Amino acid sequence: MSDQTVTRRPSQFLPNLLKISGVAVILISFFWPEQVWPLVVFVVKSLAGVAAIVIPGIFLAAWVTASGAGDRIAKVFEGRIGYTVVVASAIGAVTPVCGVTVLPLMAGLLAAGVPLAPVMAFWLSSPVTDPPMFATTVAMLGMSFAVGKTLAAFFLGISGGLVTAFFFTRSWYRKPLRENAIVGSLGATSCGAPVSCEPAVWKFPERRKRFSKEAWSITRLILICLIPAFAAEYALNALLQPEALTPYIGAGKWWAVPMAVFVGAPAYLDGYAALPLARGLIEHGMSQGAAMGFLVSGSVVSIWGAMAIFPVLKIRPFLLYLVLATSGSLAAGWLFELAV
Q1: Rounded to two decimals, what is the model's pTM?
Q2: How far apart, in Å, are the Cα atoms of 6 and each of 10, 178, 189, 206, 212?
């Protein structure tokens, strides 16, 4: 019965998505008619822009489950949380994966049984910077900002992963993913599913079937999460004027870093587009620490990134993620303010 339910849900996904999208377009046409076409174009371009990263993530996550590698990975992580947290943070700091495109890999690893702590470490560190972003930051804001962002990413991942590890006895730590129609059959094991590790999944009909189901489940998840997330990003960027933030986050104000962190989520643009924005704000009096807090918080806990994560995680690990991301961003801003 459960297998029939799983196979029936995907057949209704595209019609339901089209219905919801149609209703959304009608509502936007009524309340914001001049922005309908630009919003649709932005969402399509955004999906196309992240496809090169998301699609390999989907296939990798599906392979982890279908091949049985998830069990091997989970066993490697057992009893070595501190080591794996450090490694995951280091990899995340140099991996070109942003907050929403890390979603398929993160969800697939969690579904395969990888502990939450190293996944949280990678998840917190990966959106902040990567080699291309480092070079662009040097060009836009200088070497100190580039090095500061990299160190912030690394230590944000370590601290977040270690704090998460303290909750290893909680049930939501062991099973952090929601059980709902959005997550679908992600990581579920059907009767007769392979348990041994076999990398060549294409050689076995059962593994090929499992790979297809897993890839489709993750694709559904990504589309349901990213489409409204990109729409929200466009709406916020269209409505919010960056110049309005400068008087509240200028140098010499004690609340500059907290204000920059808490406005960083809704006001944040694309990571590369945010660099000239931060430079312009600094030229108009924004403090160095506030700029760092803005860049770190916007990348790791942007509102559309949080929207993409909320349907996947249970409420407690989701709240833990928000607390760790916010507190880490505050610490990065304050420490950078003292360092420079």
Answers
A1: 0.68
A2: 7, 16, 12, 16, 12
